[in-house]
């Protein structure tokens, strides 16, 4: 089974990260392309918080044949949460991740592209998992475990655990992971 993932840069996004995700998605899901960037919707900005509403950005993404993953550099939040690493439509078509809090510099550490790449991959595979119908997994090593902090992100693998993979396979979704 081949799925096409479309990567949608929202605003200016680091090209090296986009290309890395494209390569990995090609291996895992079959096909991937990077769409021309779109602007961050200004109405999604919350002045009192100094952050963007993740749901509004998610809803601004185009719908494509299979799955679209929005990638943005701005810090995002969702209702009742101080921030989110990403958001997705469960059993839908659209997902979104933010690189803002995946960057080591956010935590006062030196920039590190390799660290950023693997974190972005984990959060992207996690949100795509929601699009494919997966809910959060209690296995802290599984990519579908909920990440409350960057420590949780670093703790988990970028792959789905056996149980989550089985759930996908039961619905006829076979991926190379
Ligand atoms: Zn989640
Ligand atoms: Zn799992």
From TrEMBL:
<feature type="binding site">
    <location>
        <position position="130"/>
    </location>
    <ligand>
        <name>Zn(2+) 1</name>
    </ligand>
</feature>
<feature type="binding site">
    <location>
        <position position="164"/>
    </location>
    <ligand>
        <name>Zn(2+) 2</name>
    </ligand>
</feature>
<dbReference type="GO" id="GO:0008237">
    <property type="term" value="F:metallopeptidase activity"/>
</dbReference>
<dbReference type="InterPro" id="IPR012962">
    <property type="entry name" value="Pept_M54_archaemetzincn"/>
</dbReference>
<keyword id="KW-0862">Zinc</keyword>
<feature type="binding site">
    <location>
        <position position="137"/>
    </location>
    <ligand>
        <name>Zn(2+) 2</name>
    </ligand>
</feature>
<dbReference type="InterPro" id="IPR024079">
    <property type="entry name" value="MetalloPept_cat_dom_sf"/>
</dbReference>
<keyword id="KW-0378">Hydrolase</keyword>
<keyword id="KW-0482">Metalloprotease</keyword>
<keyword id="KW-0645">Protease</keyword>
<dbReference type="Pfam" id="PF07998">
    <property type="entry name" value="Peptidase_M54"/>
</dbReference>
<comment type="function">
    <text>Probable zinc metalloprotease whose natural substrate is unknown.</text>
</comment>
<comment type="subunit">
    <text>Monomer.</text>
</comment>
<comment type="similarity">
    <text>Belongs to the peptidase M54 family.</text>
</comment>
<dbReference type="InterPro" id="IPR012091">
    <property type="entry name" value="Pept_M54_archaemetzncn_arc/bac"/>
</dbReference>
<keyword id="KW-0479">Metal-binding</keyword>
<feature type="binding site">
    <location>
        <position position="161"/>
    </location>
    <ligand>
        <name>Zn(2+) 2</name>
    </ligand>
</feature>
<feature type="binding site">
    <location>
        <position position="142"/>
    </location>
    <ligand>
        <name>Zn(2+) 2</name>
    </ligand>
</feature>
<feature type="binding site">
    <location>
        <position position="126"/>
    </location>
    <ligand>
        <name>Zn(2+) 1</name>
    </ligand>
</feature>
<protein>
    <recommendedName>
        <fullName>Archaemetzincin</fullName>
        <ecNumber>3.4.-.-</ecNumber>
    </recommendedName>
</protein>
<dbReference type="GO" id="GO:0008270">
    <property type="term" value="F:zinc ion binding"/>
</dbReference>
<feature type="binding site">
    <location>
        <position position="136"/>
    </location>
    <ligand>
        <name>Zn(2+) 1</name>
    </ligand>
</feature>
<dbReference type="GO" id="GO:0006508">
    <property type="term" value="P:proteolysis"/>
</dbReference>
<feature type="active site" description="Proton acceptor">
    <location>
        <position position="127"/>
    </location>
</feature>
């Amino acid at each position: 089974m081949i799925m096409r993932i479309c990567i949608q840069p929202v605003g200016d996004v680091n090209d090296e990260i986009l290309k890395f995700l494209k390569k990995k998605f090609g291996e895992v899901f079959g096909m991937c392309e990077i769409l021309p960037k779109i602007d961050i919707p200004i109405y999604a900005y919350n002045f009192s918080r100094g952050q963007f509403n993740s749901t509004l950005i998610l809803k601004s993404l185009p719908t494509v044949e299979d799955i679209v993953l929005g990638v943005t550099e701005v810090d995002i939040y969702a209702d009742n949460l101080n921030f989110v690493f990403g958001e997705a439509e469960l059993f839908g078509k659209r997902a979104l991740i933010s690189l803002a809090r995946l960057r080591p510099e956010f935590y006062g550490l030196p920039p590190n592209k390799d660290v950023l790449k693997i974190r972005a991959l984990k959060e992207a595979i996690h949100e795509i998992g929601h699009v494919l119908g997966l809910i959060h997994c209690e296995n802290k090593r599984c990519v579908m475990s909920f990440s409350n902090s960057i420590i949780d992100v670093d703790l988990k693998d970028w792959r789905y655990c056996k149980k989550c993979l089985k759930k996908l396979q039961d619905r006829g979704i076979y991926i190379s992971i």
